[in-house]
Amino acid sequence: MLAQVNEIALIRERVVNQLKAGTVDSNEIGSLLNKIKADGSFKNIKYDDLSRTAGFPQRRHVLALVSLAKAYQSEESTYYHNQLLLEKITLATKFWMDNDFIGDNWHNNQITTPENLVNLILLMGNSLPKELIDKSQPMIGRANMDASGARPSGDRIVIAGILAKNLLFNEDRKGFDEVIDIIANEIKFNNGGRGMQQDYSFHHREDRVNNTISYGYGKYANAFGEWSAYVAGTSYAFEVEKINQLVDYYLDGVYKQLVYGVYEDVSVKNRAIATKSSFKPKGTLEIERLLRSTDYRKKELEEIIRLRKGESSPSLSFAKFFWQTEHFVVQRPNFYTTVRMFSSRNKNMEIPYNGPGITTHHRADGTNYLMLKGNEYHDIWPVYDWQKISGTTILQKPNLLGGDVIQKAGKMDFVGAVEDGQKGAVGFDFISPHDGSRAKKSWFFFDQSYVCLGAGIQGSQDLPIVTTVDQVLLRSPVSILQSGQGATKLPQGEHNINQLKWLYHGNIGYIFPNDVTVHVSNKTETGRWSDITDQKNASTKVISEEVLKVWFDHGIKPENGSYAYMVFPSISENELKTIYEAGTPHEILANTKELQAVKNENEVQAVFYQSGNLSLENELNLQMENAGIIMLKLKKGKVESFSISDPTRKLTELKFSLNGLYTAKSDGLKVLKDKKTKTSQFIIQMPKGAFAGKSLSFTL
339 and 297 in one domain? Predict the structure, then answer.
């Protein structure tokens, strides 16, 4: 028992040391002190508005108290044990205890306030009057395992952590034992429900919207990692298997949805996209904590640290489909790109809870952002045209409807991708739940480029439908080549460009294989943060940004519209000219509402929306007996290997046939050879349950 008491003291010391970590800005502390009024309130905080859309400005009071407490207890601080500072902290704490501000959003009361108050009392200890400590306990106690927010999700582990800190403060060993067990068991798969999915994406709610980088990273993963470090080396230490599972989640889930594992990926943001942000590398603390407890995948973790510290450059190449979340990611050392979709299995977008994100109706409609540095779209959102989102096909309505109708269930089953870890193809049978417009959309990703196809585009309303190639911050002059003309620089403005062959901007080249008219806008756009949120504290200041928009106009009520373009990231304009003049490496084999397929040298990727035939090359024919997505590698007139998936998630078997006699010795694959016709039928046992939609790869 004495040993456990000593461990409790050790863990508490570690928590307090973490709260004291980092430098104290004396100027900031001085400014905070000057804002404390005679009654203990802060001059710059509006205390009377507790509505959801106000954003709980009162939280800044308890946040300031934690900052002041850190300055008081940090030996390096010029305010260390300063009597005036102690008096001000006591005064401001009493103001909060006397008022006990309760916000309309449960999160304010069960997480925000309890977390800051428990940090305050851990830092201050007995320096605060006992009556204030006693008054804090019911407020901190709103963070408990019976609270409404403690459901399985990113919030549950955070609430458990707040409770654990308070139990440490009160030296409640029995209670601490119980809550640490809860935290220790939070790292687990919860397929189909709230929590970590089998593909290492994260669902915070039952709508199955991607929350990997918000709740799944900033809360769920980091809270577990924080506590694993606090209890390391004690009898409370978490099982290494759990810590290693967290490592897998970071490396195969979280870091693959960050640009190079370093910068925020705008494609996975939900309502938070309507809040101004800062562009900077993610920190290294969560990785350093992990490395104290495990050597598992150590080199990969250390590489992320070096990348985030700017000590190395990206080197990793991968393609990954998060089939539980319908999000596809491709990274190369010189670019990062994603496709975001939704189906009948998942909702399209997060509800704009508490105000932000009221213009995000179409952000999962096949969004394809492309980033070389990571800041290409940084804070573009106030000036953004929300009906021309990069990669999407959208009916151009006079206005978007309100934020209360953003979240919709998908209408189609055929949404998915195939990948082999390096390359992949994406297929999206799209019907807009907002306006009924339709399209068959596909993307084909190869080593250093990709192809985007659309077919079967139709709409029933008297409004045009457009497909946006990109809408991005204008970073350099735009160059174009039209048929029969030389390359020219495009003056700023709005342009309808006939027979556009290629466009170049910001080290990215776009080639248009068909004679089409492409619309280009490269000019200054204006807007306000308050235009894209209902939060009351949003800035109403008009801001301006230079923006590039490139799109196809399919016209009003198209019946079978289509598009095709090829994307070549991280190249020079001269390299783009050379690729165009030599002939692109990509051959579009089909672009119909039944089949979309591209060949790149010895590789073929195809999206079959229904059974059908595809000629791969001379005397080599593929007969798909089911809908599916397939990727094949060819060698000397035969298929050498293939990857396949079932986007509908309904098939137990997927079948196709090839010319030639093949043999395979792989589990889950049967080959039936017909020597008379010299063909082979392939029968693949498809993944089930939590793995339905996952790709399978085979070598022949």
Answer: no
Confidence tier at 152 by pLDDT (50, 70, 90): confident
The Cα 216–Cα 222 span in angstroms is 8
> What Cα–Cα distance (Å) separates residue 274 from each residue in 53, 268, 312, 508?
13, 13, 32, 27
* Residue 665, pLDDT score: 82
Same domain, residue pair 307 and 394: no
- Tell me how crowded residue 306 is: count the other CB atoms within 10 A of its CB: 12
User: 603 pairs with which residues across the strands?
Assistant: 600, 633
CB atoms within 10 A of CB 184: 19
Q: Cβ neighbours of residue 231 under 8 Å, at least 6 residues apart? A: 11, 180, 237, 238
From the list 217, 351, 348, 328, the residue with the least C-alpha distance to 271 is 351
Please state, rounded to an integer, the average pLDDT across all residues of the chain: 96
Q: Which helix (H) or strand (E) holds 552?
A: strand 543-556
User: Could you tell me the CATH number of the domain that includes residue 670?
Assistant: 2.60.220.10
| Cβ–Cβ under 8 Å, residues 201 and 324 | yes
- Per-residue b or e along 134-164, where b marks 16 or more CB atoms closer than 10 Å to that residue's CB: ebbeebbebbbeebebbeebbbbbbbbbbbb
pLDDT of 336 higher than 90: yes
Per-residue pLDDT band for 4 (boundaries 50, 70, 90) equals low
Q: 615 and 491 share a domain?
A: no
Provide the token pair at 608.
Answer: 């079959």
Is the domain of 370 the same as that of 413?
yes
Residue 253, domain member (yes or no):
yes
Q: Considering only CA atoms, which of 129, 155, 132 is closest in space to residue 142? A: 155
Expressed as residue numbers, the domain containing 278 is: 192-316
- CA 78 to chain centroid, in Å, comes to 41
Predicted pLDDT at 3: 61
Q: Which helix (H) or strand (E) holds 266?
A: none
CA–CA distance, 213 with 316 (Å, rounded to integer): 20
Residue 183 has pLDDT above 60, yes or no: yes
As a 3-state breakdown, the chain gives helix, strand, coil percent values, each rounded to 5, of 30, 30, 40
What is this structure's pTM? 0.95
With bands split at pLDDT 50, 70 and 90, how would you rate the model's confidence at 199?
Answer: very high
**pLDDT digits 0-9 by tens, 203-238:** 999 999 999 999 999 999 999 999 999 999 999 999
Kindly give, in sequence order, each residue whose CB lies less than 8 Å from that of residue 405, ignoring residues fewer than 6 positions away.
361, 434
Structurally, how many domains does the chain consist of?
Answer: 4
| Bridge partner list, 617 | 620
Claim to verify: residue 366 and residue 488 sit in the same structural domain = yes
- Report if residue 161 sits inside a domain: no
Instruction: Over range 538-551, report the average pLDDT.
Output: 97
Residues 579 and 639 in one domain: no
Which CATH number is 32's domain given?
A: 1.50.10.100
CA–CA separation, 389 and 367 (whole Å) = 7
Q: Which tokens sit at 336? A: 């990062």
